[in-house]
TrEMBL record:
Keywords: Aminotransferase, Pyridoxal phosphate, Transferase. One of its GO terms (molecular function) is transaminase activity. Residues 41-344 form the Aminotransferase class V domain. It holds the Pfam family Aminotran_5. Gene3D superfamilies: Aspartate Aminotransferase, domain 1, Type I PLP-dependent aspartate aminotransferase-like (Major domain). This is Aminotransferase class V-fold PLP-dependent enzyme. The keyword S-adenosyl-L-methionine does not apply. It comes from the Bacteria. SUPFAM superfamilies: PLP-dependent transferases (SSF53383). InterPro entries: Aminotrans_V_dom, PyrdxlP-dep_Trfase, PyrdxlP-dep_Trfase_major, PyrdxlP-dep_Trfase_small.
């Protein structure tokens, strides 16, 4: 067997074995276990996006000029997504990704010198960077709540955050589902805790929409942003930003354009500014109705059925990995959605070098795409994602590959 050939483990199913994999264009020679990073867009959604691009190029002015056909089309998409997350249409703006949504809020927030932004050490690095950038401009500071991992219960998140809130805390930037550790945080309780202390809450829900049922009317955050291109399977560069009505006059997009003084671009200045940031490609947004339609018909039970399917797959896959690696569960099942991080028994010196070697072997020798990284507390992890195109056989191959690389009980 040549080094470049994918391995064929005896007794295993063929690569990308799920019957549902036919709906995606993923490379069948790779076990793609990393939906959580950039998602993967189904064929029918890509086809819908291509049709919108062709319409755009046939008549760019008619298609793109906001006052012609673009704004009504955006409003139609807005209504569908607002219904999905149980929020008023007028409170939903579009951004390119959740990081941009976080930046828009942070860079608009009325910080004063001495204020504090509270984040956690499970937060997405890009968003924590944005918090530091925004805070430093006003003489404010960023405080980290240290959430343990492994973790015993959601109460540990609440305790870590509560310990750091004080009279100077103005904003809590919190994840709904953490990117590095794949934990579902107790968001409703965190929002209630912050509001009791007079602290506003900005939720990075990058992974949540399509993984969990998101009900903004019940959660009651001040700001919430989520990607469409991850678990909603939309095209890349598509996301939404929810802002509570009373705070919308404060929030400006990261690019100021015509909407700043053209009321005709939206029913409020908030929507007018976000509706038009300059020339851009709206096809990822316009393809979202097709993505939602696809997800509703993929498995019995619609999108909720797909969420249940993916969560059960993630839990079963995690169990297989934990058994192979000889590791205890690092978090309770109720904190798992469609992502799960598993600690790797890699310790001692030169951990980063060992992880880099492991990444190279998994990708090159075993043809498995999966994140390998070290957390802020030093714990080495592998993070798996579960989407409809995945199958337990793929996680078994990952488990056996990790054992061969010296990470398991046989290593």
């Amino acid at each position: 067997m040549r080094n470049s050939d994918p391995i064929r483990l005896p007794g295993r199913l063929p690569l990308v074995p799920s019957d549902l994999a036919q709906h995606w264009v993923l490379n069948p020679e790779i076990d793609f276990l990393n939906h959580g990073s950039f998602g993967a867009t189904p064929r029918v959604v890509l086809e819908a996006q291509r049709e919108f691009l062709q319409q755009l190029e046939r008549d760019p002015i008619s298609f793109l000029a906001p006052e012609r056909s673009l704004l009504p089309r955006l409003d139609q998409v807005r209504a569908l997504l607002a219904d999905l997350v149980h929020a008023p249409d007028q409170d939903i703006a579009f951004v390119r990704n959740a990081t941009e949504g976080v930046n828009a809020v942070l860079r608009s927030f009325p910080f004063r010198s001495g204020d504090q932004v509270l984040v956690t050490d499970h937060g997405y690095n890009a968003c924590n960077n944005a918090a530091r950038f925004a805070a430093e401009r006003f003489g404010a500071s960023v405080v980290h709540a240290e959430v343990p991992f492994p973790i015993e219960s959601p109460d540990a998140v609440l305790q870590a955050v509560e310990e750091k809130i004080n009279g100077r805390t103005r904003l809590l930037l919190i994840d709904h589902v953490t990117s590095p550790t794949g934990l579902v945080f107790p968001l409703a309780e965190l929002i209630a805790l912050a509001h009791q202390r007079g602290v506003r809450v900005l939720v990075d829900g990058a992974h949540a929409a399509g993984m969990l049922q998101v009900d903004l009317s019940q959660l009651d955050p001040d700001y919430y942003t989520a990607n469409h291109h991850k678990w909603l399977c939309g095209p890349k560069s598509s996301a939404f930003l929810y802002v509570r009505r009373e705070f919308q006059p404060e929030i400006r997009p990261t690019s100021i354009s015509h909407g700043a003084n053209r009321d005709s671009y939206g029913v409020s200045r908030f929507l007018a500014e976000f509706n038009w940031l300059g020339t851009y490609d709206p096809s990822p947004l316009l393809a979202m109705p097709r993505a939602l339609e696809f997800l509703r018909t993929l498995v019995p039970g619609g999108i909720e059925g797909l969420m249940r399917h993916n969560r059960q797959l993630a839990l079963s896959a995690r169990d297989h990995l934990l058994t192979a690696l000889g590791q205890p569960a690092p978090s309770p099942p109720e904190m798992i959605g469609s992502l799960a991080s598993v600690p790797l028994p890699i310790h001692g010196q030169n951990i980063d070098s060992k992880l880099e070697t492991l990444r190279g072997r998994l990708a090159g020798e075993f043809r498995i795409e999966v994140p390998i990284f070290r957390l802020a507390n030093g714990v080495a992890c592998v993070r798996i994602s579960a989407q409809a195109y995945n199958d337990l056989g793929q996680y078994d191959r990952l488990a056996e590959a990790l054992v061969r690389c010296g990470c398991g009980k046989k290593g």
